[in-house]
Amino acid sequence: MIRKKYIVNGRVQGVGFRPFAYRLAREHGLTGMVQNTSEGVIIEVQGAGKTLDLFARDLQTKHPPIAEIISIQDQEVKSLAGEKHFSIISSAAQDEHRVLISPDWAVCPDCTREILDPDDRRYLYPFTNCTNCGPRYTITASIPYDRKNTSMAVFDMCSTCMSEYGDPEDRRFHAQPNACPECGPVVWLTDHRGAHVFQTEDPLERSAFLLKQGRILAVKGLGGFHLACNAFDHDAVKELRRRKNRPHKPLAIMIPDLMTAEKLAKLNPLEQELMQGPIRPILTLEPNPVHALSPALSPDTNRIGIMTAYTPLHLVLFEHLKRHLSEQEIPALVMTSGNMGSEPICLGNAEAFDRLKGIADYFLLHNRDILVRCDDSVLFVNGRDEGYYRRARGFVPEPVFLNRGGASVLGAGPELKNTICLTKHDQAFVSQHIGDLKNLETYTFFRECINHLQHILRVNPRAAVCDLHPDYMSTRFARDESGLQVFALQHHFAHILAVMAENSFQGPCIGLALDGSGLGLDGTLWGGELLLVDNRDMTMKRLGHFQPVPLPGGDSAVLEPWRIAAGYLFRLGLDDLVLENKDSPAFSRDKENLRRMLERDINSPLSTGCGRLYDAVAALLGLVSSISYEGQGAIILEKIQSAQDYPFYDVPILDTEHGFILDTLVLFEQICRDKNQGIGPGVISRRFHLSLARALCAWARTAAKKTGVKTIGLSGGVMQNLTLDKLLRTGLKKSSLNVLTHKSLPPNDACISLGQAVFGQYMLES
Q1: Which of 348, 378, 408 is the last residue of a domain?
Q2: Contacts of 205 (CB under 8 A, 6+ apart)
Q3: Contact in structure between 714 and 512 (CB atoms under 8 Å)
Q4: SS (HEC) of 543-581
Q5: Most Cβ neighbours (<10 Å): which of 240, 267, 466, 544?
Q6: Do residues 618 and 701 both lie within one domain?
């Protein structure tokens, strides 16, 4: 007889790990105990040595499906105990912990069956959950993950729920949000003034009826509010856009299940898996044209964002909606973030009334408090790989595991698509999508995220790392409010450090950083960069860049891409081409002022941005003159490209004293020539994509030959262009280069905070 102690770390709390260990120990005839602690799950088992070996094997291989074991430490306990059974004992909290907090999980198949079973006591109950599903991160105030530390603490369980909660053989043993219609949260429906309506009817049934009638509802969900309407009702979708002031940016839809998704879109096996798994993000899919979803859902792209119902509340709402539809009608609802413009998603009931009363006709509310805002994650599948547009629900707060440990550091992130990152030993915790730090509400959310992550991780960072740009709100926070030692890191070096960290890559790497703009070391705006980064000693060099072009009007040029096209044409001496272009009336109107700005170099900062090149081409082709959201021109440009392949444009690589310059001016000049010869935009767009990808591959090969470095890291918002992403990966691999792409984070600025944090750990160590 021997006794062993195991300390299990990873995602092992709130996932049914203790009852799993209990059942496993009983199955092997072992005595002992299991306990949640801040150190991890501690298991002590006593029995014959061979039996303990079998227990240890099964502990690794048979754990609950949403558990994730990162490490198991084991040691023999010298003295045996006299207990006769295996028991689960109460949780113990400590000042330090190495426990991974679980993300929120979609409703599981078992709970789904109960919700849809008229004979079950939880029939159509919108807060059904068990240890395999339900809210975690968004209701958790602190660790350990026990009910008293969640927003469910105010709901006393009835005797039946308490019996489930206390039975190790039950699926709901220590399911912290466990509830039923007798003792759990409730829903109600109000009008936009906050007055209760239809009090004698089921609020979810009435909500379904109102949605069918073309009304717009604010629906309180898991990590905040959605704005919902019927996705087949074109007038309702247009009205939602008008009220939300979102004229063009795509709107996501929700459907009840995978079967419905397959009627609306074409799905490959990986997309099918993601649609019915425990995360259920928004997936951008190729729609099936047979079904007449409102064309206003996604006017700028040939893909549509679809997610399946991931909470019981959504599931019940669709059950009622189906009863108001004919057999031929498909249940599909717009479910877009409950906010206005670039503000964060609404969290509480009062906040939602204040901010959404001008958008929603009715409010579907409940009384389970949301403690942490967390928007829906948005993913794409390109071939056999998945990638991120936005990382939030279902993924946060899972860490990125680093090659080495270090002091705790705060990565403050960028200005747009902000996330923050906190490191703890060898783990980097990147927050959910925060957004654009240009208004008070988002900046307040930014500070909320920093405080909450510090609290639940129980870390006190020793340093903060910010962007070079002095006017970013994240930079100002780091320097003026954090009270920490501050390091600054150039935007694009942070991009490449992030993609290296995600791939656990150590050593020198050539980085292709392709995005809109970031302040460079020389004071100009970078964005089409060829870099050399070695994360062993933080050596960072700029090996090359796109041809610099002026942005007349500065920030105004980003919103009015015809200005960027004018900057390219001015550098080429071809501005008369645009003067004759009827697709750019704004330029024709302001041509004299613009020419003076460019000639006198007034408010016309130089930019090497790859995103700015996309904007200029889109404007030249008459696709956009002004934009309503970031990347709009590039998205439309990709949408309209021809399906055929055409001859390449020439894109020279110039070997200069400033490095290898990719001559994008020559590329733009050829596009101008095709435009004036009457070549269609679809053909030009396809040639542009093919030519740019080939040139970037040649650029990387040139740097690899010069430096002897064979690893290429790809990062930046332009890498969310699926065409360029696929062409670049294929082309670089054909050149026998090792390609690093983002595995856990979006390639856009949401990854910046990770690169900053990695840099900060090194700086403190050195």
Answers
A1: 378
A2: 320, 323
A3: yes
A4: EEEECCEECCCCHHHHHCCHHHHHHHHHHHCCHHHHHCC
A5: 466
A6: yes
Shared-domain flag, residues 338 and 238: yes
Q: Locate 93 and state its tokens.
A: 């909290």
User: Whose CA is closest to 222, among 101, 102, 135, 115?
Assistant: 135
- How distant, in Å, are the alpha carbons of 474, 737, 762 from that of 399? 21, 28, 18
pLDDT at 98: 64
Asked if 363 and 412 sit in the same domain, the reply is no
Cβ-proximal residues to 362 (8 Å cutoff; 6+ apart), any chain: 189, 190, 191, 192, 197, 207, 210, 215, 216, 217, 218
Residues 11 and 100 sit within 8 Å (Cβ to Cβ): yes
Residues 571, 663, single domain; the answer is: yes
Closest alpha carbon to 284 in 265, 299, 310 = 265
| Amino acid at residue number 106 | A
Rounded to 5 degrees, what angle do the CA atoms 264, 268, 274 make? 85
- Do 329 and 209 reside in the same domain of the chain? yes
Q: What are the backbone angles phi and psi of residue 659, rounded to the nearest 5°?
A: 110, -170
Amino acid at 84: K
Give domain status of residue 336, yes or no.
yes
Question: Backbone phi, then psi, for 44, in 5-degree steps?
Answer: -120, 130
739 φ, ψ to 5°?
A: -105, 125
Return the structure tokens found at 706. Answer: 């010069």
Helices (H), 477-531: 491-502
681 Cβ contact list (under 8 Å, min separation 6):
621, 622, 623, 640
pLDDT of residue 596: 85
Token pair of 678 as six digits:
């009457």
pLDDT on residue 94: 57
Residue 621's H or E segment, with its range, is none
For residue 205, the number of C-alpha atoms closer than 13 Å in the C-beta half-sphere is 8
Residue 352 exposed, middle or buried by CB count within 10 Å (0-12, 13-18, 19+): buried
Cα 650 from chain centroid? 36
DSSP, res 158 = P
Would residue 126 count as lying in a domain? no
pTM of the entire predicted model: 0.93
Phi-psi region of 246 (alpha: psi -120 to 50; beta: other; left: phi over 0): beta
3-state class (DSSP) for residue 672: helix
Find the domain containing 431 and state its range. Answer: 399-503+748-766
Do 611 and 567 fall within a single domain? yes
Distant-in-sequence, close-in-space partners of 380: CB < 8 Å, separation ≥ 6? 283, 284, 303, 386, 387, 388, 389, 720, 722
Question: What per-residue confidence (pLDDT) applies to 99?
Answer: 65
Q: Quick check: 115 and 123 in contact, CB under 8 A?
A: yes
Give the phi and the psi of residue 387 in degrees, each rounded to 5.
-140, 170
Asked whether the CA dihedral 595, 601, 604, 609 is positive or negative, the reply is positive
Give pLDDT, residue 582.
46
Mean pLDDT by 10 residues, the chain (766 residues): 91 84 93 86 92 93 86 90 88 64 93 98 97 94 86 97 92 93 96 79 94 97 97 97 95 97 94 95 92 92 96 98 93 95 90 94 96 96 90 95 94 97 96 93 95 93 97 96 97 98 97 96 97 97 97 91 91 67 55 83 94 95 90 96 94 95 97 94 97 98 97 97 96 96 96 98 94
* Same domain membership, residue 597 and residue 732: yes
